[in-house]
Amino acid sequence: MQTSSCSGNHKCTRRNREKHTKYKSVIVTRRGSPEVLEIIENDLRPPSTGEARIKILATGVCQDDIATRIGNRPFLPKIPFVPGYTILGLVDEIGEGVTNVAAGDRVAALTTFGGYAECIFLGEEQLVHVPTALNPAEAVTLILNYVVAYQVLHRSAQVKPGDKVLIIGASGGVGTAFLQLGKLANLTMYGIASRSKHSALTELGAMLIDYRTQDFVEEVRRAEPNGLDFVFNGMGEEYIERGLAVLRRGGTLVHYGAPQSFSRFVLLLAKFALFNLLPNGKAIKGYGTHRIGNRLLMEDWAILFKLLEEGKIKPIITKKFPILEAAKANELLESGQVIGSIVLLAPELL
User: What is the pLDDT of residues 161-206, one digit of tens each?
Assistant: First the structure.
């Protein structure tokens, strides 16, 4: 995606010249199904002061991308917008005053929006250096899915070896990250996932419960009559009360799933505050990546990169699509058939 001149090349056409000054992105044109995603062309401008221009190599597809497209989040971007919560790419050019990165560096960022594109412009303070030995498709899953699981386990819950935990939503990108990181932390794990996904998750070390045919409260109480130390809920608020029911006295539920509207967000905060005042010996915590702070994100990404480099974690990727086929990737994620992550890649990596 370097800007370049075609002068001196007699075969250069206007179309070829424009190729070097344009890039494509996928935008949400209105709220709705994946069909509302459209590909547009943008002018390739120079980066501004303090900014880097990045050629995107990989971006993850997550539930927040779908929720913001549909309109199921309390704080929504204005339409049109480019979804894409995470990116990994190569610095193409830097603006004035940028010292943290240089052209050619491999970097990643938690973007929230903007990842479904061939190019993105980001402030240097957002960027983390990524070891070049890592596979881009695997490494980009660490930027959201694995950092959520790692921080919930080690910063919010501060788990210890032998702790007993329940992962609600164990088969998705964050859920499988929980299973792998929980296994490394020597936890006793229970996970909720549909029966069809159990065989693929068994080796990750959890006792799996089919939420469609089994009552997970009954199953966990039967296995752990004294209760669990932690419950990690990335699904809807409807799981909170039942999750609390399987905790021991002194146990904690950490909720990291976003509510679907502003009113539900307020009600969720009120529920947390009220429950934590009750003398029941149990606690609820909320987690969000943007509450942690940039310094801790950088520290934890470095830890996760090392774990991936050493082969101690191995992201499960169901499917890889070209970046501009984001609509197909969204449709697959919404099907409910995904185990692990879906990743969008630059064409040269497929």
Answer: 999 999 999 999 999 999 999 999 999 999 999 999 999 898 899 9
Centre a 10 Å sphere on the Cβ of residue 40 and count the other Cβ atoms it contains: 13
Using the 8-state DSSP alphabet, how is residue 156 labeled?
I
Q: Specify which residues 120 forms β-bridges with.
A: 54
Position 188: which residue type?
Answer: T
Which CATH architecture group holds 14-130+316-349?
A: Alpha-Beta Complex (3.90)
Measured CA to CA, the distance from residue 149 to residue 169 in angstroms comes to 12
CB 228 within 8 A of CB 206: no
Task: Please give the average per-residue pLDDT across 258-270, as a whole number.
Answer: 60
Nearest CA-CA partner of 140 in 167, 116, 163: 116
Three-state secondary-structure class, residue 309 = helix
Q: Tell me: the pLDDT tens digits for 24-55?
A: 999 999 999 999 999 999 999 999 999 999 99
CATH code 3.90.180.10 region(s) in the chain? 14-130+316-349
Handedness of CA 18, 81, 315, 330 (dihedral sign): negative
The residue count of the chain comes to 350
pLDDT tens digits, 211-237: 899 999 999 999 999 999 999 998 877
- The reported pTM is 0.90
Chain-centre distance of CA 54, in angstroms? 19
Q: What's the CATH fold of domain 143-291?
A: Rossmann fold (3.40.50)
The dihedrals phi and psi of 104, each to the nearest 5 degrees, come to 95, -15
Beta bridge partners of 40: 25
